[in-house]
């Protein structure tokens, strides 16, 4: 059947396409919301006429009551899109108390390039009957003669315009919003690509995800959950989500709708489509299409089609317009960069952080201003212990934060405070605002449940936020990790084991869960459980070096230093093989601290210096400075401490953990125990928090407490010293396998001797010597402990 000619409207450099709901400026799409487009269409059809606010609101929202502020927001959006300024209203003029007017001449252009200047218009609520009435009146004015050819032409155009308006109104009224509830989730399938251009594969799905994630209303199925379900189905976790496979995943995740995207050629142009289908019935809930003139315009088309979908599912216009940064501004204008970013994101979840690095680096190489690629790479580097690289990437992301969406801004700013300035309180405040703005964002709750709460000692808040994230997405890996770790740090080992069991039942497996299984087995004395996790670590990318380092700590805690050194060197080698030099340096600096605590002065200094030659990362510098202070090199330690204080003025760990510990260690070497206690007062608020070095490398927790105990011992304040060392024994989750877990027992025995309680002193010494029953015999602190215990025994016999 033949259809009527297609009609466009043109004014200035702009063209309005009513059928496709597209505004073009010199043939380039201009991103505006659907409601803003409908407002523009009414003004265009009534150019040079004042259209009342009431008529505009009834035309745009015919079946709903809305606030006038929504119309004002539409006008603001249109003026911004058209380039109107406060000083120069070229296009949309306000008539106070009356309404708005499009103050320029508009041409109606039909297929075949026939055009007509729009001189006057009937009112916005025109329908066919009103057009027919106008036509009848025109005929009655000259009852005795036939209409001229020109008259027929104008009459025909008026009728067509009336039909177009009627069609638009009817189409809008027939497309009732598809309501999605608070708990309804949406799955995005991969786009069906028939263009033959592989760059669209992965990139468009990632782009649509970025756009929809801006919405506080849309609840997307998390990528981690999708990969988990694919694994359970016997598929690779990065399998392409065809419409058929996506439908099955949608059903298995109990989601409400699946979005099936498509892209195809139309001559030299592209057609982008989006279809929403009910997961249970297969019914089509929404079907959108938009045309892109060039390949470079596809991302802009994706922005528009995402905005249409959001309004169709019931999201308010105000929310859509507030959180709808165009994709090329929010993320990247490069399809190639977006594809590399998408691959990196999937790899990070399926294979691990280290394997994802090359993909994010490629995305940045293609688009150096890709803020989120910098930010995620910064987080990946942080997760693998490369703090210097993490700071560089996160700082760059922060510098580019004018090119991001609101949601991305929350993430980047939180990461900047967490990883660059180190201000965990500021990071926590930003994350809390993120959860308030996007209460259904699983990542907002998941990140808040991580280091920002652990590093400030807010473990209960971590548990609360982790549970919120898991309620939104049961298989969110890192929410499960955070829940396990918070209970572990609170010494709720039974709860942590239950959390681990639930994660195992959900088939969630990431290296961090393996580590916690190892440490719980250690604290419970389950040697076979520890060995099982060691064996598993050899098959998990990025896990073997950290577990090997942990084995070294366990050996060091029992005084088996020769074996501990071997494990430490092995862990360093594994890290260096992966190109993670800072991580390797941290392992060596950690070994230097063990040696210093045990009295092996020359070994401690040698390892500390070697670690600093590899990296000047924050945690490396801290551990090396502490080893040097404990081993008597006060001058070098002081210089490192001063440098850290200058480099990290806001850092929560540095200010409230590292610096007090270092100042106290230096003061003790100078025989100034009271000054050491004074220096440690700063640490009181956060002393039971997990510092960065413990969060990533599982050692260094409660060092301020240990140093305070040593200061009281030096000051011969036995009861006060005993109270500090008892804290260490009561917080085994924070201490883990750190050697101070054993040394605290020896120091407790010394504190009881000063207090005159010989029975408790003997018991504490016996506990220490039992742990060190297989210790290397030449360790200075071991020799001292044996001598002191023998003297205590003789004194008791006498």
Strand order, biggest sheet? 4-3-2-1-8-9
What summary fits the major beta sheet?
6 strands, antiparallel
- Do you know the CATH topology of the largest domain? Serine Threonine Protein Phosphatase 5, Tetratricopeptide repeat
Q: How many beta-strand segments?
A: 14
Total number of distinct structural domains = 5
User: What structural class should be given to the helix and strand makeup?
Assistant: alpha+beta
Describe this structure in words.
By secondary structure, the chain is an alpha+beta fold. It has 5 domains: 7-125, Arc Repressor Mutant, subunit A (Orthogonal Bundle), CATH 1.10.10; 186-330, Rossmann fold (3-Layer(aba) Sandwich); 335-544, Tetratricopeptide repeat domain (Serine Threonine Protein Phosphatase 5, Tetratricopeptide repeat), CATH 1.25.40; 580-645; 648-798, Serine Threonine Protein Phosphatase 5, Tetratricopeptide repeat. Helices cover 61% and strands 9% of the residues. It has 39 helices and 14 strands. It has a 6-stranded antiparallel β-sheet, with helices on one face. Strands 10, 11, 12, 13 and 14 form a 5-stranded mixed β-sheet that branches. Strand 6 (92-95) and strand 7 form a beta hairpin. The relative contact order is 0.05. Mean pLDDT is 86; it is low at 113-177.
